[in-house]
Amino acid sequence: MSSTQRQKQFDLNRRGASGQAHSPASDSGNNNNSGGSKNVVSPRQRKRQTSMERLQVQQPNVSRRAAGSNWMAAAANAPGAASGSENQSTEETSPALTKSARTRIRKKAQRNRYLAMDCEMVGVGHNGNDDMLARVSIVNRVGEVLLDKHVKPRQEVTDYRTSVSGIRPHDIANGEDFEVVQDEVVKLLHGRILVGHALRNDLAVLNIRHPFELIRDTSRYKPLCKLVSNGHTPSLKRLTMVVLGQEIQTGEHNSVEDARAAMGIYNRIAADWEKYLERKQHQQQHF
To answer: What are the phi and psi torsion angles at 208 (to 5°)?
Structure first.
């Protein structure tokens, strides 16, 4: 084969490897120039042509592990990748979190894992002997208020108990519907450890339940009751004075203040409290 024929054969193989289709005219021209001989593609050439075609349609690997430090560039050049303006807007709306931002998010989650709740009630029914929810407050572990709402009365109020509850007619007249507040409380407490004083009364007036193992009730923690009131149920006011050295409930009660006091008591003895619960659970598993 002459050098001219080898050059034409090389060009033909290169065009075939690049996936370009040949028109009948070009093929006939090549046949005429080669002296009328028919070009036959060998199996080896066909295999190489197929391999080249596969290489051209192969999708780029945009995985971070494979691309290394250039993974973002590989992802940007991948088929279906967003345009430059779209990428820019995406980066602006969801930037990579810095270490300090991740730390803040983690600390916030830890603060909100423990919530303290307190409710104020008014009296309904005969002589106001029955309780009805008038206000509910929830704070996190550092005392930040996550919820504090008054609730519209669902029955006629016969005793506002203002000297204790601090509730007046206009407070609950402008409050929110009970079902709305109840739903907010349920969502906020879901999966969280609930701290409070005499929580059974608060949960009853809200008409909700909370898992027993997720409750930390300062009125029912036996070691604390023995220490403060010789085993009797102590008041939140007495506990706060003994444990925290603070005076609360000097006049009308405030549910935010009471919730913070209960959380402060728990924080002061949390380590001993949790160890006590672990020992108690261990004993129950062996009996």
So the answer is: -135, 170
